[in-house]
Amino acid sequence: MLDHILRGNFSNLQDSLHKATRKLEFWLLAIWTSFIAINITLVVRLGENIDEIAIQILTWAVALLLVIRNRSNFKFESTPSAIAIGTLLIVWVLLKSLLTRRTTDILFIFTPVMATVGVALIGSGWKGLKQYWQPILLAATLGIPVAFLFAAIEKVIPVNVFTAQFANTALWYGGVKVAQNGITIVSQFGAVEVARGCAGLPPILMLLRITLMFVLVFPVSKFHMWIMFPAAIAIAFIVNSLRVALLVIVSGQADVFKYWHAGDGSQIFSVAAVAILLGLCNYLTKDDEDEYEDEYEDI
Q: What's the predicted TM-score (pTM) here?
């Protein structure tokens, strides 16, 4: 049915839809899609971070794409225990979604992966759960308790100090008279303290998620995969450090500083980082795509 719709052929749509609704996979996909819609609606309404909202929508879109693309390979053989657990998970997720008031609630954060696992259990049981490892993995990235993760990393790695050092070095090479004292950068324009929120962990996590989605959707060799993930970290760190350097330069102008710190200007750096990453991924995987097409033609 989906193939006919994509081709613009709607002649047998009613008959195909009637047959599809009689299949278990249709109803499971409908339940999962409904939850995705509810989850995105809550994140958009209650969330404040534009980057986080965008990555939430993109992650669900990619997960849905992977399920539709691999739907012909799924085997639907469940067990009573798996159906019972899956149903309980879905009911709990729906109740939690209806009662939640903030997206930072630790129990709400786990609802994407719980809903995905619940639907998979109903459809294919415990043994068939591995068929859905891609959407489950993507849903799990939405279930990361970011605040706890960042706090744990910052206890081990002083990311804000490294960011201050890189920004200070960039300004020095740019001809700006600067001095660094820990996480504080002092210049003739003013002083800026690199707090934890500006350390660069949020953009690093965002680019790692995008890299994971790219790897799951497109054919990528293991060699290039090992390049992409470290490159994502490096790109996010460098771009964020350059943003901090710019904030030092405009620190004496309150309105301009606010624009580049928390306004639309901060989103420009996010877009630039994503564009650089995708450009690199596209460049690295050109040969991988050609090899994949050649193998597909041989088959």
A: 0.85
